[in-house]
Amino acid sequence: TAFDLLKESAEVEFEQYDFGVLITAINDQATDKDHYWALYINGEYAQQGADQTILELNDVAEWRYEAITLQ
To answer: Hey, is 39 helix, strand or coil?
Structure first.
Protein backbone atom coordinates (compact mmCIF):
# COMPACT_ATOMS: atom_id res chain seq x y z
CA THR A 1 0.00 0.00 0.00
CA ALA A 2 1.00 3.66 -0.21
CA PHE A 3 1.22 3.62 3.59
CA ASP A 4 3.64 0.67 3.60
CA LEU A 5 5.85 2.39 1.04
CA LEU A 6 5.83 5.60 3.08
CA LYS A 7 6.85 3.75 6.25
CA GLU A 8 9.75 2.09 4.37
CA SER A 9 11.09 5.37 2.99
CA ALA A 10 10.49 7.99 5.71
CA GLU A 11 10.01 8.56 9.42
CA VAL A 12 6.24 8.51 9.87
CA GLU A 13 3.92 9.32 12.74
CA PHE A 14 0.27 8.37 12.45
CA GLU A 15 -2.90 7.70 14.36
CA GLN A 16 -4.96 4.55 13.84
CA TYR A 17 -8.76 4.87 13.59
CA ASP A 18 -11.55 2.46 12.68
CA PHE A 19 -11.61 3.98 9.18
CA GLY A 20 -7.81 3.70 8.71
CA VAL A 21 -4.67 5.69 9.42
CA LEU A 22 -4.20 9.43 9.62
CA ILE A 23 -0.67 10.65 8.88
CA THR A 24 0.35 13.18 11.53
CA ALA A 25 4.02 13.72 10.59
CA ILE A 26 6.52 12.80 7.88
CA ASN A 27 10.22 13.29 8.63
CA ASP A 28 9.37 15.53 11.61
CA GLN A 29 7.06 17.81 9.55
CA ALA A 30 3.87 17.57 11.61
CA THR A 31 0.36 18.45 10.64
CA ASP A 32 -1.22 21.40 12.45
CA LYS A 33 -4.49 23.32 12.44
CA ASP A 34 -3.60 24.87 9.08
CA HIS A 35 -1.84 22.02 7.22
CA TYR A 36 -2.19 18.31 6.48
CA TRP A 37 -0.42 15.61 4.49
CA ALA A 38 -2.19 14.86 1.19
CA LEU A 39 -1.52 11.77 -0.89
CA TYR A 40 -1.41 11.96 -4.68
CA ILE A 41 -1.13 8.94 -6.97
CA ASN A 42 0.14 9.65 -10.48
CA GLY A 43 -0.62 13.35 -9.96
CA GLU A 44 -4.23 12.76 -8.84
CA TYR A 45 -5.55 13.32 -5.30
CA ALA A 46 -5.96 9.87 -3.72
CA GLN A 47 -9.53 8.66 -3.40
CA GLN A 48 -8.77 6.34 -0.47
CA GLY A 49 -6.64 6.41 2.61
CA ALA A 50 -2.96 5.55 2.28
CA ASP A 51 -3.43 2.19 4.04
CA GLN A 52 -6.16 1.28 1.52
CA THR A 53 -4.40 2.55 -1.61
CA ILE A 54 -2.86 -0.40 -3.45
CA LEU A 55 -0.05 0.67 -5.73
CA GLU A 56 0.57 -0.80 -9.16
CA LEU A 57 3.94 -1.15 -10.89
CA ASN A 58 5.16 2.30 -12.06
CA ASP A 59 2.65 4.24 -9.91
CA VAL A 60 4.05 7.43 -8.43
CA ALA A 61 2.98 8.16 -4.85
CA GLU A 62 3.59 11.73 -3.71
CA TRP A 63 2.98 13.27 -0.31
CA ARG A 64 2.28 17.02 -0.28
CA TYR A 65 2.12 19.21 2.83
CA GLU A 66 -0.92 21.30 1.97
CA ALA A 67 -2.79 24.18 3.53
CA ILE A 68 -6.30 23.45 4.76
CA THR A 69 -8.70 25.67 2.88
CA LEU A 70 -12.31 26.21 3.87
CA GLN A 71 -14.71 26.62 0.99
So the answer is: strand
